Amino acid sequence: MKVLISGASIAGPSLAYWLTRYGHEVTVVERAAGIRPGGQAVDFRGRVHMEVLTKMGILDEIRRHRTENGPLHLIDERGEDLLALPASFTGGQVEIQRGDLARILYDLTKDAARYVFDDSITSLQETADGVYATFERSAPGWFDLVVGADGLHSNVRRLTFGDESQFVRDSGYNVAIFNAPNRLRLERDGLLYSEPGRGISVYPLGGGASANVMCVYAAGDATVDRRDIEGQKRLVAGRFAGMGWHTRPLLADLAGAPYFYHDSISIVRMKSWTKGRVALLGDAGYGATCGGMGTGLAVVCAYVLAGEIAAADGDHRVAFPAYEQAIRKFTKACQQVAGGVGPFFAPKTARSLRRRTRIYKVLTAGPLLRLLDKLTTKAATSIELKDYPAPVRHAAAAHAAAHVPAHVPAHGADDGTVRARA
């Protein structure tokens, strides 16, 4: 089959890996000019994550690029420890920078799938035989299936299901992440300082070569255009002005940060993630801005979606309902974890801030530390993986069969079916 995937971050390339292994012809379209570097650290935890990474053959490579960060210290205004959360709480069994993981997945699939950067889908028209897709830059074409793996603000979801206001639920908090010099000379451990309604954390990168700064704040009535990066930076600087500890020198690096990300902390709520020949994967269908183990969720669900397509011999009418049923409990459990991110980083009142500190002091004391680890992995293991049909072809063989000229319009086959040329 010809499959069009929108999004080349984590979910899209993960699905491309499995689909090309099953012999399908895959095109991945990405709005950015290339694989996006940088980003926050993401982690994998629990037997389910490890099993899928092992099946993909990338677990060792991920470990070679792991962050090796230490505990997260919650500190007071003087920088003194209130408590320390173990590395497994924030970083799971293995943690890696999002940009490094994206590069690993791209390198794994670039010879089997066709990547089209600096482009985006503009319309999707479904017929009995396929989906006709048009693009901002490329020639239109026919595809058997379309998958939206394009994040919280999914373009495919908008085109297929409607405006995101129907599905994206705002938590009342915003988050900003930027790369900065390691002014605090951190080696492995991270720091989190919170005041009512705002919290700032710092983690070292590359063994202390630089640092990632994460700012979480109660949004209030803040509104900003997602395309206005400078406006977002001004908003963050204003919200954290006058904050104690080392906040001022940390924010001095915000304006010229080589990497910057800002968004609301939100969760996607949908009754169904498929419609006709279109399916949503990862953050596009059931993700959260942060804290919902979205990376592990995307990688596991990509395995499930491709497996159900294989088990149904390509019949989306069978595969898509099976995919939804298989992951529903899993996605719900992960999203429940994500709901606590804002209140953890930036409790809105002094009372709730003191309460958070007391709770985590208890949880990190002695025998309860094991319970804390168990709580963080419970959601990640709330799915039993099926043994799907074995991939029929190696990725390189699939690429050789699928190698066609770029952007050639589709033509109807002799048997009346519609075949796409990517």
Automatic annotation (TrEMBL):
Keyword annotations from UniProtKB, A to Z: Monooxygenase, Oxidoreductase
A molecular-function term among this protein's GO annotations: monooxygenase activity
Residue ranges of domain FAD-binding in the record: 2-312
InterPro entries recorded: FAD-bd, FAD/NAD-bd_sf, FAD_aromatic-hydroxylase
Listed transmembrane segments: none
A Pfam family assignment: FAD_binding_3
Name under which the protein is recorded: FAD-dependent monooxygenase
Organism: Actinomadura gamaensis
